């Protein structure tokens, strides 16, 4: 039996699925709380899937990139499968069945310390009906004594059970070898020059319709949707084709007002939402149009701007706003979002599909602004006109001058302005505002860095 030793040096880099063809997909299914997400973390070699002793933490189909023995594949974590589930648990189980049908092979996880249950036998019937190759993992085999109990899982009739410990890595090597034998070979790699899908994170407060928006864009139920706030826990990546282009949408957990007061899986979900923002190129901040704008909505947009990501603001549930109210709401939005006038805004309904066709043009405009580069000559001509018309005010008999400027980077556009002295913050904001007026930068933050010339100290 091949074990992963304690302290195994996992590869911390995520496989870049954007540079290759469609990878084979492995769906991980089983009853609630049998250790599926812990096993996912073991397979992918990093702690990404949210893990907690409470059953039902994972709710959506959550894909992760994995590598083993030089081969790459996609692991899809699913929520607990229960044949008698009702309410949200039934929606979670439905997502697990969708994952089985979409996968190339299935890893069925069973708790070896409990043995075969009615729910396990119900999952087996679904697996047989799907016709997909199945690898049976007997989890929680932490010692030799429990390993003999795992052999009783032969009774499920789907092949050899692999005794493993997702927590400690025991036996997972043999299991992964069996998984590679069940999965088809990956297709040849794409030419990296062709690039990959643009990454779009969907963020916002809990229960504003982020998952509904993803499902409407995908034109199918990719993630669980419920009226209960906090349904989404793990960020959910989905490749979706829109207007002939492939996009990678990332549905995230709702960002609550005080993360420091959140405990358990919600705390880690908030950290993963922040990581999804960092990984994205464009962030769609979803706002509930049927409710007044809150400080938390503005705080989320500020976080996106500080992260340097392109921004699109989606006012969801627009269908719940009556015609008379819409006129005044537009005025309120202009007032509330005065510092984000540069961000494209779309008024949509993820439920009815109203104005969803406006989303892609907004995303493309934000990406274009985020990648805009201003030639150095053009920038300095702009600065010359600006200083001639509006010079920096004189303070204490001194007037700092702008010497020259250059655009240091794109994504987001960042400018280095070299000056003879310190520039007042108000004048720095004035430069940023005029940069937008002249060069656009729609949907993108603009960072202006002042580099004041240091005076040489006279040695005595």
User: In the CATH scheme, what's the topology name of the largest domain?
Assistant: Rossmann fold
- The CATH architecture name of the largest domain reads 3-Layer(aba) Sandwich
Biggest β-sheet: count, sense, barrel?
6 strands, mixed
The number of domains is: 3
Helices and strands in order:
Layout: E1 25-30, H1 36-44, E2 62-68, E3 71-77, H2 88-102, E4 105-111, H3 118-130, E5 134-139, H4 144-150, E6 161-163, H5 172-182, E7 198-204, H6 210-218, E8 236-242, E9 245-251, H7 265-279, E10 282-288, H8 295-307, E11 310-316, H9 323-336, E12 345-347, H10 359-370, H11 376-389, E13 402-409, E14 414-419, H12 425-439, E15 447-452
What would you say about this model in short?
With 460 residues, this protein is an alpha/beta fold. 32% of the residues lie in helices and 20% in strands. Strands 2-3-1-4-5-6 form a 6-stranded mixed sheet, sandwiched between helices. Strands 8-9-7-10-11-12 form a 6-stranded mixed sheet, sandwiched between helices.
How would you characterize the overall build of this protein?
The N and C termini lie far apart (77 Å). By secondary structure, the chain is an alpha/beta fold. The protein has 3 domains: 166 residues, 3-Layer(aba) Sandwich (Rossmann fold); 173 residues, P-loop containing nucleotide triphosphate hydrolases (Rossmann fold, 3-Layer(aba) Sandwich); 77 residues, K homology (KH) domain (GMP Synthetase, Chain A, domain 3, 2-Layer Sandwich), CATH 3.30.300. The longest helix has 15 residues. The protein has a 6-stranded mixed β-sheet, with helices on both faces. It has a 6-stranded mixed β-sheet with strand order 8-9-7-10-11-12, sandwiched between helices. Helices cover 32% and strands 20% of the residues. InterPro entries: AAA+_ATPase (IPR003593), G_ENGA (IPR031166), GTP-bd (IPR006073), GTPase_Der (IPR016484), KH_dom-like (IPR032859), KH_dom-like_a/b (IPR015946), P-loop_NTPase (IPR027417), Small_GTP-bd (IPR005225). Keywords: GTP-binding, Nucleotide-binding, Repeat, Ribosome biogenesis. Associates with the 50S ribosomal subunit. This is GTPase Der. Belongs to the TRAFAC class TrmE-Era-EngA-EngB-Septin-like GTPase superfamily. EngA (Der) GTPase family.
């Amino acid at each position: 039996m091949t074990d992963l030793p304690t302290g195994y040096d996992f590869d911390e880099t995520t496989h870049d699925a954007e540079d290759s063809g469609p990878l084979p997909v492995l769906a991980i299914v089983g009853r609630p709380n049998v250790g599926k997400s812990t096993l996912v973390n073991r397979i992918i070699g990093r702690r990404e899937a949210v893990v907690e002793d409470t059953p039902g933490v994972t709710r959506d189909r959550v894909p992760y990139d994995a590598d083993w023995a030089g081969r790459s594949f996609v692991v899809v974590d699913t929520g607990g499968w229960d044949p008698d589930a009702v309410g949200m648990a039934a929606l979670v189980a439905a997502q697990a069945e969708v994952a089985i049908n979409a996968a190339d092979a299935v890893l069925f996880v069973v708790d070896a310390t409990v043995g075969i249950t009615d729910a396990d036998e119900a999952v087996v019937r679904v697996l047989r009906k799907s016709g997909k190759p199945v690898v049976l993992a007997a989890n929680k085999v932490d010692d030799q004594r429990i390993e003999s109990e795992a052999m009783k899982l032969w009774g499920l009739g789907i092949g050899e059970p692999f005794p493993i410990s997702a927590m400690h890595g025991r036996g997972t090597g043999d299991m992964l070898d069996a998984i590679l034998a069940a999965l088809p070979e990956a297709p040849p790699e794409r030419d990296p020059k062709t690039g990959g899908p643009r990454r779009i994170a969907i963020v916002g407060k809990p229960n504003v319709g982020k998952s509904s928006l993803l499902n409407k864009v995908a034109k199918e139920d990719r993630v669980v949707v419920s009226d209960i706030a906090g349904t989404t826990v793990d960020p959910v990546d989905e490749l979706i084709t829109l207007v002939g282009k492939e996009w990678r949408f990332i549905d995230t957990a709702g960002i609550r007002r005080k993360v420091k007061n959140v405990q358990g899986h919600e705390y880690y979900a908030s950290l993963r939402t922040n990581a999804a923002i960092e990984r994205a190129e464009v962030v769609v901040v979803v706002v509930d149009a049927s409710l007044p704008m809150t400080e938390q909505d503005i705080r989320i947009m500020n976080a996106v701007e500080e992260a340097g990501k392109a921004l699109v603001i989606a006012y969801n549930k627009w269908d719940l706003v009556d015609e008379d109210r819409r006129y005044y709401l537009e005025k309120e939005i202009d007032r509330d979002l005065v510092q984000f006038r540069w961000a494209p805004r779309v008024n949509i309904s993820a439920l009815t599909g109203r104005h969803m066709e406006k989303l892609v043009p907004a995303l493309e405009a934000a990406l274009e602004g985020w990648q805009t580069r201003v030639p150095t000559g053009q920038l300095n001509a702009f600065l010359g006109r600006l200083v001639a018309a509006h010079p920096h005010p004189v303070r204490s008999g001194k007037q700092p001058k702008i010497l020259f400027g250059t655009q240091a980077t794109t994504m987001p556009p960042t400018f280095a302005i070299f000056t003879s002295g310190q520039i007042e913050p108000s004048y720095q904001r004035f430069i940023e505002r005029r940069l937008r007026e002249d060069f656009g930068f729609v949907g993108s933050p603009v960072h202006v860095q002042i580099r004041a010339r240091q005076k040489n100290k006279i040695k005595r």
